[in-house]
Task: inverse folding
């Protein structure tokens, strides 16, 4: 990475599953004309790629090799929704299944996989700036991010949002099962030995439980506006 890229503005949005960070990150990036990194999608891509290769139960070394050679591209469709391409195939719908998310959470706990993806994530830091969402963007991947945000919501609200999101996409899943899955992911993400889910010491905490998407987006845009320009 060049020295100039080291100075590129980064907005890191971390938080637990279902907090809305992906939706908010896309909106903030679009409003500011900045690049977007959906880091959670990378772990889902590793899980999906392994599954397509018949290696969904592969050992850590094999999964790390898959992570190191991911052919991935992010784009946006005409309606502003994110598109994710794996080896030239658009796989957004496959990535958003609960099964893929469950496997991805397990994959993300493997240190070798996280190490393999670190360089790929850092490569997204390019002008005019980057909005990066995930679970360790502000603590591990971009510890010098210009603005760090820890976005959260209570577990029941996160389950309700996820349930609605999946129903809107025609994916049938029970609310009770989603609640259990979110609790399991929270525990696994916060207890893993490498890059556990936690706010960065200098992160701004934002609880979206009782806020609309527009209110959360505007809060972050106001925070960005208040940042002094970097030299």
Result:
């Amino acid at each position: 990475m060049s020295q100039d890229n080291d100075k590129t503005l980064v907005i890191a949005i971390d938080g637990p599953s279902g907090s809305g960070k992906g939706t908010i990150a896309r909106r903030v990036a679009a409003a500011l004309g900045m690049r977007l990194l959906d880091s959670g999608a990378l772990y889902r891509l590793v899980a999906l790629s392994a599954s397509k290769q018949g290696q969904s139960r592969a050992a850590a070394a094999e999964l790390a090799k898959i992570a190191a050679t991911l052919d991935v591209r992010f784009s946006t469709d005409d309606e502003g929704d994110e598109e994710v391409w794996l080896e030239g195939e658009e796989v957004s719908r496959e990535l958003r299944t609960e099964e893929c998310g469950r496997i991805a959470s397990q994959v993300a706990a493997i240190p070798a996989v996280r190490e393999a993806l670190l360089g790929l994530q850092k490569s997204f830091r390019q002008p005019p700036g980057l909005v990066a969402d995930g679970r360790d963007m502000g603590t591990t991947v971009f510890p010098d991010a210009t603005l760090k945000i820890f976005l959260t919501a209570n577990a029941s609200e996160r389950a309700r949002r996820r349930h609605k999101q999946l129903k809107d996409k025609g994916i049938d899943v029970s609310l009770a099962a989603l609640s259990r899955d979110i609790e399991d992911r929270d525990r696994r993400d916060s207890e893993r030995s490498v890059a556990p889910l936690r706010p960065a010491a200098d992160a701004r905490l934002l609880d979206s439980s009782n806020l609309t998407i527009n209110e959360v987006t505007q809060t972050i845009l106001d925070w960005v506006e208040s940042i002094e320009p970097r030299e």
Observations:
- The mean pLDDT is 86.
- The beta strands are 10-14, 35-38, 72-76, 82-86, 89-90, 130-134, 147-152, 204-207.
